[in-house]
Design goal:
Helix content: 25-40%
Oligomer: single chain
Strand order of the largest sheet: 3-2-1-4-5-7-6
Order of helices and strands: HHHEHEHEHEHEHHEE
CATH topology: Rossmann fold
Number of domains: 1
Largest sheet: 7 strands, mixed
Number of helices: 9
CATH architecture: 3-Layer(aba) Sandwich
Strand content: 15-25%
Shape: globular
Number of strands: 7
Length: 234
């Protein structure tokens, strides 16, 4: 992917930063992208990602944090094991650590994003894989986590439907899987249209998990509505 010189976010207005963040996000969510192309896109974005994807522009990590805090009482946070899927630069993990969580692991395939994530020092174990591929099945411990969270990775050319089964496998019985995504992706992403929610429902019918809640929230990313899907693993 060719690089385009962009103005520094620190020298731009809030509106301009939002516009730039939206464009960069779209570059990484192109139809037909292969996993290595997605990874390369995030590698090139990693150094400026946290400067663009700030609260107000991208509220996904805060939305996920609030949902997790709704289900994990204060006295359990220091022992709760959380897996942050597609962790990026570790925004959610940093928020969880500030809220008292101590056992945080991350799944992230982009070396560039991982370099930023590691620098934050909040994760115990880091798995450099795509959730849902053969490597994730062998590297990520099974039946281990009290909560598995994925924020922003159900998008064009990103996570496959089958990644959900791997999230369930990594979760303890009674644990939670929290999916936070752009609501419109249910219809704009061909891989998810009339497929994602039916797939999640089929897993419930087969007693893999039970739905806790489905919530639409405003201003998830650049004014777009978000969707929170929370399930309890059986």
């Amino acid at each position: 992917m060719s690089e385009v010189t962009q103005p520094s976010p620190s020298n731009m207005s809030e509106v301009s930063v939002k516009s730039l963040a939206y464009r960069k996000n779209q570059e990484c969510h192109q139809p037909g992208f292969k996993p290595d192309q997605v990874t390369m896109c995030y590698d090139s974005w990693s150094a400026s990602y946290d400067k663009m994807m700030v609260p107000g522009t991208y509220n996904g990590p805060q939305i996920a944090l609030d949902e997790i805090l709704n289900h994990v009482p204060l006295h359990l946070r220091s022992t709760c094991r959380v897996l942050d899927v597609a962790a990026g630069t570790g925004q959610l993990g940093t928020m969880l650590a500030q809220a008292g969580f101590r056992f945080l692991d991350a799944v992230e395939p982009s070396p560039g994003m991982l370099q930023i994530l590691r620098g934050k020092g909040v994760y115990c174990n880091i798995y450099e894989v795509y959730m849902g591929n053969a490597a994730s099945k062998t590297k990520i411990p099974q039946g281990t986590y009290d909560a598995v969270a994925v924020v922003g990775a159900f998008g064009e050319s990103h996570l496959a439907l089958t990644s959900v089964e791997d999230m369930i496998s990594a979760t303890k019985p009674g644990g939670l899987v929290v999916i936070v995504m752009r609501k419109e992706n249910l219809v704009t992403v061909e891989a998810y249209r009339d497929k994602l929610e039916p797939h999640l429902a089929s897993l419930e019918e087969r007693s893999y998990w039970t739905k806790v809640s489905r919530k639409v929230v405003p201003d998830y990313f650049c004014g777009k509505d978000g969707l929170i899907l929370t399930y309890k693993v059986l």
